[in-house]
Amino acid sequence: MMKCTGWRCLLFLLPVIFLLPHIFSVLELHHSSAIKDPLKKRAQKLDHLVFGPAAGVALQNRMQCQGTKALNKTRHSSLFHASHPGGSIAFVSVFTVYNASINRRLKRPDSDSVTVGNVSYTKSERSMAILDVFARFIQLTMPRSHLFILTDPASDLHIDRKWITVYPIQGQYSREELMLQRIRSYIAFLDSRLKELSKKKEIGQIDHYIFTDTDIAVVDDLSQIFYEYPDFHLALTFRNNKEQPLNSGFVAVRGTLDGIQRAKVFLMEVLKAYSTRYMKASRMLGDQLALAWVVKSHLSFDLRRFAKPVAFVEKINGTSILFLPCANYNWTPPEGAGQFHGMPLDVKVIHFKGSRKRLMLEAWNYFNSSSNMDDMLCLILASGRAKYDF
Ligand SMILES: *[C@@H]1O[C@H](CO)[C@@H](O)[C@H](O)[C@H]1NC(C)=O
Ligand SMILES: *[C@@H]1O[C@H](CO)[C@@H](O)[C@H](O)[C@H]1NC(C)=O
Ligand SMILES: *[C@@H]1O[C@H](CO)[C@@H](O)[C@H](O)[C@H]1NC(C)=O
Ligand SMILES: *[C@@H]1O[C@H](CO)[C@@H](O)[C@H](O)[C@H]1NC(C)=O
Ligand SMILES: *[C@@H]1O[C@H](CO)[C@@H](O)[C@H](O)[C@H]1NC(C)=O
């Protein structure tokens, strides 16, 4: 008898469909669209974790590791059950599913499987596995939250979990337009929340929203940003990068009428900038460029603030925007030479961009067997530079 648990079970129930790597992240799309010779590409990608030195040695407030053993204790299990009064968090992600007909058209066999831990995944199962781990981390660190998965109505996605809602939104989910569609879906979702809020006679509990890619691990409670910075409408993550100072993989929206309304207007402006200026880049970086363009075009502050990883709030056309450092809220394993100088002790979100998806699953497996989040962070820090095959 085949035993099946959780979403693996669900996978067997899905008809034979082809799950394209959906919106993992912008870089993922870049990588997948850049593949000309899959064999050659695969050859460069590793099917096991490769450990290098953990960046940030001796730097203050950076994770210190000995192998995968963390020398700092940064998290306590009690932390994950802290509850804030008066509101909960809903995560919102776009996830698309393409089916077998597309698969055949592309003549891409769905047979080359990849093994992580003791589980083998076909190509079609991989994006589902990422979504699964994404959800598991949220459940672990923010057990009271809800997850909305915005998807193509034509896609065959069923998830039988109380805290997850599959939310179909009509749109253009072709690969070429996926990044554009993501913004449209966010806007449509915010619109539906506005309608819902206006129907309510009295506003009781407020839900705040965090829009993210699915290739992230939430490793700390994020609800605190809404209390620590009580005045923002919309939060974005920034990094010290002249061309692309903003990453679109994490957007937080305060769940008040004002917050949702302003976030919607802001995203509509990003959408406009995207479709009028950056369509050539629509497969990959268009949304980040559009985001940066909108922010810069309403410039009332010194862009040099992006150089220092310290959160700040600025008004843009009347909308109060909280800028959160990627170093904490959208941390990516260093790509270059110590880009982020290690991992901050209070890192909250890890983004497994591009070819780091294997690491996301390996990290979850490691945590599942060790129950030690700090050690898991060391595993990520030490092995995040390699390109993996998953
Ligand atoms: C982290 O651990 C290292 C090594 O034990 C120690 O020197 C450092 O002070 C610790 N950092 C913090 C903030 O506790
Ligand atoms: C894989 O299976 C072996 C033997 O069945 C077991 O010892 C090991 O812990 C498993 N590894 C994982 C990651 O589940
Ligand atoms: C899957 O294929 C059917 C028919 O081949 C098509 O009508 C449907 O739109 C496709 N679904 C997606 C998500 O592309
Ligand atoms: C500025 O904000 C107003 C009010 O929200 C909005 O109607 C308008 O579209 C915004 N203008 C620009 C250029 O963003
Ligand atoms: C976590 O580990 C347990 C065994 O220790 C296993 O039964 C379970 O399937 C694992 N969960 C995930 C999500 O890997």
Structure description:
- Keywords: Signal.
- With 390 residues, the chain is α/β, with parallel strands linked by helices.
- The chain has a single domain, classed as Spore Coat Polysaccharide Biosynthesis Protein SpsA, Chain A, CATH 3.90.550.
- The protein contains twelve helices and 16 strands.
- Strands 9-8-4-10-13-12-15-14 form an eight-stranded mixed beta sheet. Strands 1-5 form a two-stranded antiparallel ribbon.
- α6 runs antiparallel to α8 and α11 runs antiparallel to α12.
- The chain is globular.
- The N terminus is likely disordered.
- The site of one 2-acetamido-2-deoxy-beta-D-glucopyranose has 5 residues, from loops.
- State the CATH class: Alpha Beta
Helix and strand pattern: HEHHEEEEHEEHEEHEEHEEHHEEHEHH
Number of strands: 16
Distance between the termini: 28 Å
- Discrete helix count: 12
Portion in helices: 25-40%
Q: Per the principal axes of the C-alpha atoms, what is the gross shape?
A: globular
Strand order of the largest sheet: 9-8-4-10-13-12-15-14
CATH superfamily: Spore Coat Polysaccharide Biosynthesis Protein SpsA, Chain A
Using only C-alpha atoms, the radius of gyration works out to: 20 Å
> What structural category arises from helix and sheet content?
alpha/beta
Approximately how much beta-strand content do the residues carry? 15-25%
Q: Average pLDDT across residues?
A: 82
**Assembly form of the protein:** single chain
Bound ligands: 2-acetamido-2-deoxy-beta-D-glucopyranose
Keywords: Signal
InterPro entries: Nucleotide-diphossugar_trans
